[in-house]
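Hi R.,

As promised, here are both runs. First protein below:
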Amino acid sequence: MYAAVCAGAAAWLLWNRERGPRRARLLFAGGGGGGEARMPALWTWRRWGPVVWVRREWLCLVAAVVLAVLGESVLPLAAGAVAVPLVRRRLRARGHARERARRADMVIALCGAVAGELRAGWQPAQALLWAARSTGALGREEAAVLAAARFGGDVPQALRRAAREDGADGLAGVAACWQVAVDGGAGLAAGLDRLQAALRERRDQQERLRAQLAGAWSTVGLLALLPVVGLAMGWALGADPLRVLLHTPAGWGCLVVGGLLEAMGLWWAGRVVRAGEAL
């Protein structure tokens, strides 16, 4: 029965996924009459998927509820409530790191696009206008930079302001190349090519370092799972570790001391790995 329900839900989602683009094509082609019903977008994964993705930290509370029911204690609920903001902070830090990497790639693409358009015969301002709109590397300062390029403003200064965003520090190099080309008459395309090569080499070096440290991060994750493995071994041996930990004074002491040691171990291991990433 459950398999039939899942199959029906999957078919319904696929049908709505194909129906939306078909209706859009009819509307833009002038054939969108009243015969097509509106797609129920309220329940589509495209709308609710990002919400579920952002709120993954609430899975800690779900796991705490399960442990609280199995152990017949409210202590897992308190631990889950404490873990939610910590996990949220960690997920946000990972999201910011991905955003910085994405912005750095956009700056590299901007350098290559501007250099290519300059070799095609465009003026620097026109090349910057097109490359900025196609790559989106300027972020919130895009309007200011484009206005400076279009109306003869201080483009290097606008680029330096845009370089203050996370991951966009390469725009400071673009500003320096622009300043040298304007003041000294040097070739802007050649300077951007060298800057693009340097930024790409730095990105590749960071990726190689992350690949080398992947084993260390795996060790940290294994360290975090050791208490769960210990509880599973206790259940396999016929004991009741949750009842001992949650309902006896000795278990409370072991829980507090073990939690502190676990937190200190994870913090120290993460600190060592992050220090290696910063080299």
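And here is the second one, sequence first, then its structure tokens:
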Amino acid sequence: MSTTAGYQRIVCLTEETTETLYLLGQADRIVGISGFTVRPARARKEKPRVSAFTSAKLDRILDLSPDLVLGFSDLQADIAADLIRAGIEVHVFNQRTVAGILTMIRHLGAMVEATVAAAELIESLQAHIESVAEAGRALPYRPWVYFQEWDDPQICGIRWVSELIEIAGGQDCFSDLARAPDAASRIISDSGVVAARSPEVIVGSWCGKKFRPERLYSDPILADVPAVQRDALYEIKSPLILQPGPAALTDGLDALQCIIKEVALRFAR
């Protein structure tokens, strides 16, 4: 499709919109990206980095003369407000569920008049999700999963992660907390709360730093937790699953599926 219609100069303040535009064949429209962008890898070589997550180089963004800036969630509200005051059009997505991720893709496709490509991408993602879900339903056992998004304080997984755990054949120990949109509401007060829910697998995905399972192994409160007893602690790199975009529904979901299948087969013996 010709890129003569829709927004022509887009700044993406988070990775998932960058990844989506590349997948839609609309990379030429992007003039600036987040410094945390790792997908696709070529974006870091091709596009200037103009923001972190809660901060941005306003002057640098304005120098790029964007006709649209894309953000995510209330955590970027201050950046959005500054850009709006500077006369820039801003759209802030707020997807927190698997369905919300697919809706974001549909809306973004419409913004760049790539509705057909967006529909095809969504169809492909839905087919992949259903394939993983079918395999998950066939598992002999559905293990209880504690997804740790942060270590200090302990924060359990956000809602789309909780949904992906269920799709992959697991059960989220903290599905009740996962419904909360903000991280503060997903803080776990102490390890005793984790121990009480007896997770059979623990998945660490500490945003921006390496998961250190030894911290969990050395916690005496968790000593009798099945996941610790049976060495069922794993890491999924945060860019694969904590960005609410295509990566979470492909590589992130696949990583969860591998972990849950392995643990399910072990616990079913």
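A quick note on the second one: The chain is about 45% helix and 15% strand. Let me know what you think.

Best,
J.
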